[in-house]
Amino acid sequence: MKFAAISVIALAAALVAQPGLAQPGAKPAAAAAYHAPVNAFGQPDLEGVWTNATLTPFERDAKFGDRLVMTPDEAAAIEKANTKFIAASNAPTDPKIKTTDLPYECGRGFKGSDCGYNFAWTDPGTTVMTVGGQKRASILVDPPNGKLPTMTDDGKKRLAARFKRSAWDGPESRSLGERCILSFGSAAGPPMLPLLYNNNYQIYQTRDEVTIVIEMVHDVRHIRLASEHLPTSIRQWMGDSIGHWEGDTLVVETVNLRPEQGFRGAGPNMKVTERFRRISPRQVLYSFTVDDPQSYTRPFTGEVALNSSKGPIYEYACHEGNYAMPGILAGARELEKQGRDPGAGPRDATGAPAEEGAQ
Fold first, then answer.
1. In this predicted structure, what is the pLDDT of residue 174?
2. What is the mean pLDDT of the chain?
3. What pLDDT score was predicted for residue 190?
4. Rounded Cα gap, residues 280 and 303, in angstroms
5. Contact 41/210 with Cβ under 8 angstroms?
6. What does the alpha-carbon distance between residue 305 and residue 288 come to, in Å, rounded to a whole number?
7. Angle (CA) 299 176 117, round 5°
């Protein structure tokens, strides 16, 4: 399943003419004093259904520079652009729009409802992420510019080798999400990040474990408390997560991910440290730090607001072997018969490779 969606942040860029008034290099907001309720085990109570749906992107738009916090007007412009996008998505398809090459036209810009779902099928959020009253310009808070750090030479080589492999040879070469093995993107994590839809999580707590049910593909994370990591020879989907309490914060360290699972170029040897802290009756502040010296020149950190959501979470139905998988592979075989490379990327109406950034 692939989606062609508009970047709402990019859409709103033209609507915001001023650079804003927030102080440059704003630091993450310190949550006001709040004492989370305690459960029967004496632990801060994180249980409930939470959502991380947001219009705030993972990396920051360059126009914000080192400003983590945007102005109310900037946030309002982004949310207004999103409202217009929802209306356009839900409107009947204009019969005058003729989409003749879906991979090219939908991959290079929005050309009508043929290019994706209408809003009834998605749930990416309708507001900019708010933490401690601050409207966030990115999920990444460190490096200060809200961008991923530079990759190491080894990391670049490994990533290039990964993309060099054909994604059309067989089902094993397709993404984990398409094969219903793990969530699309990084919904299951770690780190756990928002997607186009299914951004809900349910947290359960016992004396010895914290369990997180992820709506997307119905993954489940088991975080053992006061335990030790398994040997490095035992690799698991979503890694091996060990948690402990530091005051009212649940701290989780995850290692030993499977080699098929990575994150933004980081490899299976990365270490992810997550922190869950309830900062209000209706919000948990979730932060994460990814440390992979083999892939990146420095660690990077992000923050996501988990907002209370009405349950229950229903089971996600992922149908491996449906029309999508045979269609993808059959399409690749047909292109090969025509002497075309399935991995050549989008092409223009003449069949020539499309220019980067073409609309």
1. 84
2. 84
3. 97
4. 16
5. no
6. 12
7. 100
- Enumerate the β-bridge partners of residue 286: 276, 304
**Token pair for 5:** 């969606």
Is 0.90 topped by the overall pTM?
Answer: no
Rg (CA), the chain: 21
Instruction: Please give the helix or strand (H or E) that residue 28 lies within, else none.
Output: none
Tell whether 205 is covered by a domain: yes
pLDDT at 118: 67
Residue 225 to residue 234: CA distance in whole angstroms: 19
**Pairing outcome for strands 219-225 and 48-51:** unpaired
pLDDT confidence of residue 347 = 52
**What is the distance between the alpha carbons of residues 103 and 315, in angstroms, rounded to a whole number?**
31
Tokens of 105: 């036209």
Q: How many helices, marked H, and strands, marked E, lie in the chain?
A: 5, 13
Beta-bridge partner residues of 50: 201, 308
Strand 200-205 versus strand 130-131 pairing type: unpaired
Residue 266 included in any domain: yes
| Domain count of the fold of the chain | 1
Q: Mean pLDDT, 10 residues at a time, over the chain (359 residues)? A: 39 38 45 84 97 98 97 97 84 69 56 60 91 96 98 91 76 85 92 95 98 95 97 96 97 96 90 98 98 97 97 84 80 91 61 41
Q: Which phi-psi region, left, alpha or beta, contains residue 66 (left: φ > 0; alpha: ψ -120 to 50)?
A: alpha
The answer to whether position 81 is within a domain reads no
What letter represents residue 322's amino acid? N
**Domain of residue 200, residue span:** 36-67+127-308
The pLDDT of residue 12 is 44
Within a domain: 215:
yes
The overall longest dimension of the chain from CA atoms, in Å, is 67
What is the CATH classification number for the domain harbouring 195?
2.40.128.20
